[in-house]
Amino acid sequence: MLSVIAARGGSKGLPRKNLRMLGGRPLVSWPVAAAKAARAVDRVLISSDDPEIIRAAEAAGAEAPFVRPLALATDTASSTDVVRHALDAVHAAGEQYGYIILLEPTSPLTEAVDIDKALGCLHEAREYADAIVGVTRTESAHPEYAVRRSELGIIQPYSAPNFRSLRRRQDVERLYSLDGSLYASGTSAFLQRGSFYHERTLGLEMPRWKSLEVDSLLDFICIEAVLANRDELRAAEIAGPTDVTGRSSLRSG
Q: How far from chain centre, in Å, is Cα 230?
């Protein structure tokens, strides 16, 4: 499996965030380390337009066979095009990989065990699935509890006729959010569909603490707190998140 670490130089929410130090090392080094430690990953590439980010990723163990074109490093550039560019580069060098996984520094809590579990689930489900992405259970932000706010500031339920009709949290449908923790696909399927998201995509449930993303300074501070208490968070997981079939499964990592 080929792992692509996507880390461009520009960032408006938190400038130079991919080089910001987290736990004593640059943010970009976290997905590189996870991919390098995963049994399922054969090669780790950094895709960036920024020489400093490339050097930091190489120091962490990634390879940099190319510099990402500036046209693919804008706010509007898609991750699909970034992955296609990386695949074109390795294919031009005569290399082929059955699976591709995209990791981003903005999800630094994804670990090697998550990568290996994702590929294992996808490989076993290839009869009906071609891709797998990280998801996390929607709880406090469940749409059941969304409200409208009038011009006067009065609130009313968005999806229920009144507040008395709201169901208990235990009774609402279990929903998930796309969390950006990882994206994996069979390579040929990705090239054909041009996306990780389609009707043959599995959702790998990630624990809430691993689903935090760095988009702002507040996110960064929260993730620093998670890292400082990671062992306690793991110990608090009596049973891990359900797997893609809905069964409960123990986790390690």
A: 18
Domains detected in the chain: 2-135+177-236 (3.90.550.10), 139-174 (no CATH)
Q: CA 173, CA 102: separation in Å to the nearest integer? A: 30
The listed range with the strongest mean pLDDT (3-7, 78-82, 168-172) is 3-7
- Which pLDDT tens digit goes with each residue over 97-106? 999 999 999 9
Strands (E), the chain: 2-6, 21-22, 25-26, 43-47, 99-103, 131-137, 147-149, 155-157, 176-186, 201-205
Extract long-range pairs of 116-122: CB within 8 Å, 24+ residues apart: 116/38, 116/39, 116/40, 117/204, 118/182, 118/184, 118/204, 119/1, 119/40, 119/184, 120/40, 121/202, 121/204, 121/243, 121/244, 122/184, 122/185, 122/186, 122/202
109 pLDDT above the threshold of 60: yes
pLDDT tens for residues 30-39? 999 999 999 9
Answer for the pair 131, 190: CB distance below 8 angstroms, yes or no. Answer: yes
